[in-house]
Amino acid sequence: MAQKDKLIFAPTYNEQGTIETLIAEILSLPVRSDLLFVDDNSTDGTTKYLLSVAATEPRVHVIVRPGKLGVGSAHKLAWLYARVHGYSSIVTLDADLSHDPQDVPRLFAELDAGADVAVGSRFCAGGRTDYKGWRRFLSQTANSLARLVLRLPVAEHTTALRAARLDRVPPGLVESVNANSYSFFMTCITRIAREGLIIKEIPIHFHDRARGSSKMPRAAVAQAIPAFLRLALNRRPVKPLGIPQGAERQCPACGTPYRTFVAPDELLCLQCMGTGLQGPCSP
Ligand SMILES: Nc1nc2c(ncn2[C@@H]2O[C@H](COP(=O)(O)OP(=O)(O)O)[C@@H](O)[C@H]2O)c(=O)[nH]1
Ligand SMILES: [Mg+2]
Predict the structure, then answer these.
(1) What is the pLDDT of residue 214?
(2) Among residues 9, 20, 28, 144, which is most buried (max CB within 10 A)?
């Protein structure tokens, strides 16, 4: 497989108000990279726009899933995609311009300078967030609690703005995170830190979204509590499970091109995981 270089990934669900600017800004960055979007069949025209860009811009790739399957499962699919296509590094960010695309080169630069993973942080020295009210309280409380209990070498646990060297993060470590919604981010960084990987934080200014609305369901907070407790109670590093090979990349149940481990020996495609289907996919 030909080695590819950098991949930038954003999950999308109804981001019509920002998607055009986001793509234009990323394509004009001084670092050359491919772009991947995992779109969950947006209802506001985002899907159509993404597909029209991908038809003319070879650096832009789009995977459209049949419905809203969760931000965490979209990230896992992006990691699998990056591995399967042989990219050497990945940057992930939100599509609502809360994360400034201009921070992406700084994240890649941290990888070049020796980090295995780089995190765009609101909570390290110099970081800022525009959140106010409930969202500010929620993100500050979640991150303070995580810092107190999990004792990872980071101040920011819940962001999607991250970069990673794919040769340094063991295959399957992220792809098998058992969370399809927002708790994915905390579980993912905990696994990475417990693996002993070098994590660098760069301070960022996090903007509140200017357009569209948050897709974070209220249930996400409740769903995050058991995930947090599991991380607090079981501090052993996770045994990376590898990634599916060859034919296992094709889900025979629904035709999805990628499957991932949810437990040792148990494979599910990301769509079936997202729809809560029980048991492994079988032909
Ligand atoms: N593909 C996909 N993307 C999602 C889903 N939920 C949220 N997103 C995207 O994930 C990013 C973060 O979501 P957002 O609503 O901004 O969450 P918030 O910043 O926590 O309020 C945005 O780019 C969303 O479009 C989902 O179920 N599927
Ligand atoms: Mg947002």
Answers:
(1) 96
(2) 9
| Residue 118 host element (H or E) | strand 117-121
Helix, strand, coil shares of the chain, percent, nearest 5, are: 35, 20, 45
Q: Which domains does the chain possess?
A: 4-242 (3.90.550.10), 244-283 (no CATH)
Q: Which two tokens stand for residue 207?
A: 């903007």
Q: Ligand 1: which residue has its CA nearest to atom 18?
A: 214
Atom of ligand 1 nearest to the CA of 209: 16
What pLDDT is attached to residue 267? 64
pLDDT for position 283: 36
| Res 64: pLDDT | 86
Encode burial over 65-95: b for 16+ CB neighbours within 10 A, e otherwise. beebbbbbbbbbbbbbbbbeeebebbbbbbb
How confident is the model at residue 264, as a pLDDT?
Answer: 58
Q: What is the pLDDT of residue 106?
A: 98
Higher-scoring residue by pLDDT: 43, 252: 43
Closest to 25 measured CA to CA, from 91, 140, 102 = 102
Contact 188/157 with Cβ under 8 angstroms?
no
Higher pLDDT, 240 or 231: 231
214 CA to middle of ligand 2, Å? Answer: 6
Is 271 a pocket residue for ligand 1 (Cβ < 6 Å)?
no
Q: How far is the CA of 213 from the centre of ligand 1 (A)?
A: 9
**Res 208 pLDDT > 70:** yes
